[in-house]
Amino acid sequence: MFNELPELGEFPENWKRMHLLGLEDLTREELLILLDKAQVFRTAFDEGRRKFSFLSGHTSVTLFFENSTRTRTSFSLAAQRLGASCVAFTASTSSLSKGESVVDTAKNLEAMGCESMVVRHSTPGIPHLLAENVNCSIINAGDGAHEHPTQGLLDILTMRQRLGSLEGKTVGVVGDIAHSRVARSNAWGLKKLGAHVIVCGPSTLVSPVWKEMGVEFSHSLDAILPRVDVLNMLRIQFERQYTSPFPSTREYSLLFGMNSERLRRGKSDLLVIAPGPINRGVELTPEVADGPQSAILDQVSNGLAVRMAVLWLTDGARKRIQNA
Amino acid sequence: MFNELPELGEFPENWKRMHLLGLEDLTREELLILLDKAQVFRTAFDEGRRKFSFLSGHTSVTLFFENSTRTRTSFSLAAQRLGASCVAFTASTSSLSKGESVVDTAKNLEAMGCESMVVRHSTPGIPHLLAENVNCSIINAGDGAHEHPTQGLLDILTMRQRLGSLEGKTVGVVGDIAHSRVARSNAWGLKKLGAHVIVCGPSTLVSPVWKEMGVEFSHSLDAILPRVDVLNMLRIQFERQYTSPFPSTREYSLLFGMNSERLRRGKSDLLVIAPGPINRGVELTPEVADGPQSAILDQVSNGLAVRMAVLWLTDGARKRIQNA
Amino acid sequence: MFNELPELGEFPENWKRMHLLGLEDLTREELLILLDKAQVFRTAFDEGRRKFSFLSGHTSVTLFFENSTRTRTSFSLAAQRLGASCVAFTASTSSLSKGESVVDTAKNLEAMGCESMVVRHSTPGIPHLLAENVNCSIINAGDGAHEHPTQGLLDILTMRQRLGSLEGKTVGVVGDIAHSRVARSNAWGLKKLGAHVIVCGPSTLVSPVWKEMGVEFSHSLDAILPRVDVLNMLRIQFERQYTSPFPSTREYSLLFGMNSERLRRGKSDLLVIAPGPINRGVELTPEVADGPQSAILDQVSNGLAVRMAVLWLTDGARKRIQNA
User: Fold this and answer.
1) Which candidate, A118, B157, C91, C305, has a CA 20 to 30 Å from the CA of A171?
2) Does the CB of A150 have a partner CB in chain B at under 8 Å?
3) What is the ipTM score, two decimals?
4) Which residues, other chains included, contact A129 with Cβ-Cβ below 8 Å and sequence gap of 6+?
């Protein structure tokens, strides 16, 4: 019933984190451990070795205060493929005293004996608050516009598979930069690996916080197009915006959408990725999305592999810490 | 933990389908393979052998764009009893470009490594579209008013258990014929097995498509009553109809409902079945529903057995095709 | 993958119930069997032995007609930790003929082969109705204002862990007594173990039914405070009340809330418990909820242990009855 995975090797001595809260905190070495172990899981996945017993007896809870069927399903499958049980806990945010009730909810789940919690919440910092208050592993699955570390990792793993080392490479992150935890996790991770990051979008979708992160700015996709090795085409999150940040979807698509014509003007091996679900015809035309320079579905498989690596590493560190 | 099932025998050489999209496409031989294997699972179920390892390592996703707790639970239990993991993916249909987004959703689930998808959608043909676009087994759990093959199979298996061979038997399918994928799957399957099918309902609930299927028509239950060996009393699907197709529920029940008095006027061994959930007092009176000539709960157990057989057969064919 | 649990011993000869419908029916001996076995599961849980194979092959369904994520998750985890599969079935109550449709739904789930059903419904007596109509084990997870036996058991187990024997002890149950199945299950269980029970709340929240149960009444928390060994601070269930039973939440809290000042006026080892989720600042101040005299999180872990014991005992009795 379970497969073996000798390539995974010994548990890495230098991995000491029982939580994964963001990519900002990680050292370059830790980032490489994560990517290397995720690659092992991905290779095994492609070879049909998909079910392991590393986390048998472990109970993981997905504690989502925002809806996300895809991310939740990916984490749930990752946990189950490691032999863990996975329980979905759908919480409402209607309580007046949100901070308190989130901690109470997490403490309850801890008291039921769960070993890890995968948390999504609209408020930045909630995973950090939980990590301070419970003894389970906390894995951030998106906290407001702050971080979404497993998305950052799967994006970077996908780039590394196609480009090799990211040292000296230039990555453009295009779209709704202001509201994007994905852009932030990409930037933190990519910079640690020596890549140059350009965020690119309409001036209405740019936040001053980026200036402090050492990333380049642009308001013209055409201007950066010849320089980039990768374009990460963020999803326009219509549901997040209260007033329209651009005149029309059509205008956005004309200025910031990726199409065959633009693809021809980029580097010949330009890689195009995008966190799903994509709005076809908005950020990407179908020709680009389904073409050979796109790695959209590879990202999904890498997401599973990254989440397996994260669960395996944080579980191992938690056991060491709690047995010490 | 797992039971053995030697009666299942070798994988049938003549079963080559990795998808189950409808009963229309099946040969008589394929239909008999399905029914025979389902009967093996049903017999084992009755004897308490309910958990197997045939699909261990297999991940099945129920991808339902219409709600159906019962059918979904039945498929989920069937997958789990074969040793598979089963994940529920509830999709919304709000996207403008439905066709595209359904394929994208399915490709995402495929990239997460699922081996089968059980699909329900209000648009006929969606399962066929997915079968052309992914490499998982696609199992149609209802596509609009088109087909619902596992319901057809469980109805037919139930008839076969009570009547023996269906050759020369007459089956009445009564009710909302116009909107019924159940009626269509029944008709395709029953005809292949040599049964005569009569669809019967108010003239407002009859669609011209039936003329081409070689089934008989009637607008009077009382007229067909003496001739039928089985009555399949379809559920009035109040939720599907935009204008009322009959003056009142009471009138419908008087003309097309099955009650003790009508039961006495039918053949002495007339079998009454109905896809749940039934509207007691509308299609069937409680005396009929709970009486010895009803097989309503047997249908539910047969549904589980049929879905186990379908998952086992399509999985075996998929492995052969993909290893060839 | 599975742990051993030799401390559990042989299946108790005197446990003959395949259902758990309420604490009112239980003998003192049966109550003690439940508490003793739950304690075995709790001790094992604390030692990290959390996964067993006692119920492998067993399918449990949580059939909830009222929402309750916490209770449902607790039962689901309990079933899975015993090696069972657990399926959630969310039913609507919109049907006109509720009683009938609940029985039909349960019979359908039984026909799919489930061995136990964990039932929550707003109508008192629904679990009893199902127990008469299906051959699965029925476990009452709350029926209207009638009983919630596993909550009563986990409260009592928590008291017993802190106080030892409950003989001669005095337990105050404070708050919304009129609508509380928790209060009723507490009272039935505590009385059988020799404890004295005082229900305490505003006069608008008191129902005449209590007079017949042999419990003492009070409308003043301050009056009973010096006498009680335990206070069970019920949650004000704002969602259940159609007209406000007290002038303001603030007034309720002043008269019936537990705070540090009141804690000082109680016995020095007064134990405070509360069924979650608590309204911080209403029934309990945070100082009390998080203080050493509170056992709120212990209750949650005990809930899991109690549900494991209930599933194990009812399953064993069911097998004996059905094999007899």
Assistant:
1) A118
2) no
3) 0.92
4) A99, A102, A103
